[in-house]
Design a protein that fits this description.
By secondary structure, the protein is mainly β. The protein is built from seven helices and 28 strands. The protein has a single domain, classed as Capsule assembly protein Wzi (Porin). The radius of gyration is 24 Å and the shape is globular.
Length: 569
């Protein structure tokens, strides 16, 4: 009841006055979103925006009436007779058609990729279509942008059927406690989501409302520990800033959410497995999950370009909600209890601290995020043992002048993400990131990670080298991705056979290009999977390979092609 009163007070305050459009730029918008961040490095857009609380609201960094056209040089070229309806800007009423976009993704051998929103991990072709409108009247704004996804979802070899039964048993020990199906059923998959939609009441730099948009918290580009666009967006109440709020000690940005997470309904493996005639899959509770979260970013006025922040989220099953403490559990500690039936144990918590340092004179940025998952230690213990249940993301980017007269630059970026545990004891106790014995769907929504798309026990190193000019970008990307190394150590804890690490080495070409009202994007990536599915063929005593320790593992090659086109009205 107190929560309802608090929301009602916020709504009444917002209704008093408003001068904010509150039109958001969806997380992961091809071409546009990264353009604004790159423009910060050059100092040509507002450098007070942290880019750690997304989606961003372009009107705070781009004062043009149409934020989908990034500079004064670009002009809309209507391909259809939409002049009467595409953009209306009156004193109180505003209406705008949002870009129509079609994104496709193809994997030739097995699923690969993350940060693709409503798309699912799947082999074969899949397509995501989105369109909508934005309208506002006084303090009220409505953004309707649903998403429809269709995936062929072709069968593939998911866990080598030649593996020993004990391997399957240990696999289920982990994936029974997280909702990450390796395949979303059999046959084609299709689903319509609310997508990047919201209804808000806005007052100056504040906005309150209901949204299904994807969120991204933290400074990372490839990965974020708490919120990313790997999973589909989830329904949530939000109270957030739409631009930095200035104070005598600096500016602040932030968001508070309360939302509902959904289950995928699919088992870890398709088909399932058994161990001594007993099914290994233990069905997860069929109950929705309640998620609360908070992020706060501070830019000290004494150090221009430096952003410091903190974020935290907690989830629990809907059936366990009873009082105000359950609905607003932020900052409450996770209790260390061995009784899984104790309601206090039915919650998960993940938190992180982060920084982003923007150097406009050097056209560069440095960022770092450090997080802990279900850490039961108090503050002093956390300082003494920071590596306990830790994960981190580190990165830097720099623009190098290439052809100043034509505003061309070379962009160099490096990012490292480490989610693998550094303690075998923690792994054996089941304390992997995003995996939970209390909330057995783990930190997921609709079967995909809410945070870093590389998943539990994953490590990723990425290097990007690109030519950029305005919205145009052409480059190469190199990646080294280690799949769930925690599972490797848990499964092969007796042998420690270091040849079984499932490691993907990839090189890809990617680019985006704008032409009149169109934005095109393309990514072609070749991925060599070493020891695919952690499988290594056993030596046989009578074979010549029995005398050679370095027996080749089972490798796989996957070709991923991503293409897309967006039309701006």
């Amino acid at each position: 009841m107190k929560t309802i009163k608090l929301i009602a007070i916020c709504v009444l305050l917002v209704l008093i006055h408003s001068n904010t459009k509150a039109q958001s730029l969806p997380v992961g918008t091809i071409g546009l979103e990264d353009y604004y961040r790159r423009a910060q490095l050059l100092g040509i857009t507002d450098t007070n925006v942290s880019f750690t609380v997304r989606p961003i609201f372009p009107t705070s960094i781009n004062k043009q009436a149409n934020s989908f056209y990034t500079d004064s040089i670009e002009q809309a070229h209507s391909l259809m007779n939409t002049d009467l309806f595409k953009f209306i800007n009156k004193k109180k009423f505003k209406f705008q058609l949002l870009p129509v976009s079609v994104q496709t993704q193809f994997n030739s051998d097995h699923p690969y990729g993350w940060n693709d929103g409503a798309m699912i991990p799947a082999k074969g072709m899949q397509t995501l279509v989105s369109a909508g409108f934005f309208a506002s009247f006084g303090p009220l704004s409505i953004q309707l942008k649903p998403e429809y996804v269709y995936a062929a979802n072709t069968d593939f070899e998911n866990l080598n059927n030649k593996s020993f039964d004990v391997v399957f048993a240990r696999y289920y020990d982990i994936y029974n406690n997280i909702d990450l199906p390796v395949q979303f059923g059999t046959g084609s998959f299709k689903k319509l989501y609310w997508g990047q939609s919201s209804i808000r009441l806005n007052y100056k730099a504040l906005s309150v409302g209901l949204s299904s948009e994807n969120l991204w918290w933290g400074p990372g580009i490839q990965n974020s520990l708490l919120m990313s666009n790997t999973a589909p967006g989830f329904a949530h109440l939000t109270l957030n800033t739409t631009r930095p709020i200035k104070t005598p000690i600096g500016s602040f940005e932030g968001q508070i959410i309360a939302g509902r997470l959904e289950n995928s309904g699919f088992p870890p493996l398709e088909p399932g497995s058994s161990f001594f005639t007993v099914d290994l899959y233990v069905p997860k509770p069929d109950d929705w999950r309640y998620l609360t979260g908070l992020i706060l970013t501070w830019q000290p006025k004494w150090i221009p370009g430096l952003f410091l922040g903190f974020d935290q989220s907690q989830q629990t099953y809907g059936k366990n909600l009873s009082g105000i403490r359950d609905y607003l559990p932020l900052f409450s500690p996770i209790k260390n209890t061995t009784s899984p039936d104790n309601p206090i144990a039915k919650q998960d918590q993940v938190n992180s601290v982060f920084m982003r340092w923007l150097w406009t004179q050097e056209h560069a940025e440095l960022y770092f995020e450090f997080g802990q998952y279900n850490n039961t230690s108090d503050f002093l213990q956390s300082l003494l043992e920071p590596n306990n249940t830790r994960a981190y993301v580190f990165g830097l980017r720099k623009l190098l002048p290439f052809n100043k007269s034509n505003n061309e630059n070379i962009l160099v970026g490096v990012e490292v993400a480490q989610l693998a545990e550094n303690s075998t004891t923690n792994i054996l106790n089941g304390t992997e990131w995003y995996v939970s014995q209390n909330i057995r769907q783990g930190y997921t929504n609709f079967g995909q990670e809410l945070g870093a798309g590389i998943g539990p026990g994953g490590n990723l190193q990425t290097v990007d080298i690109s030519w950029v000019k305005g919205l145009k970008k052409l480059g190469l990307q190199f990646e080294r991705y280690i799949h769930n190394d925690d599972l490797y150590y848990y499964t092969y804890t007796d042998t420690h056979d270091f040849r079984r690490h499932w490691t993907d080495l990839s090189i890809g070409f990617n680019g985006s290009w704008n032409y009149k009202s169109l934005i095109f994007n393309l990514k072609i990536q070749g991925i060599k999977s070493l020891d695919y599915q952690w499988y290594l063929p056993p030596d046989t005593p009578n074979s010549a390979s029995a005398l050679i320790y370095f027996v080749p593992g089972t490798d796989a090659f996957n070709l991923q092609i991503q293409t897309g086109i967006a039309y701006r009205f």
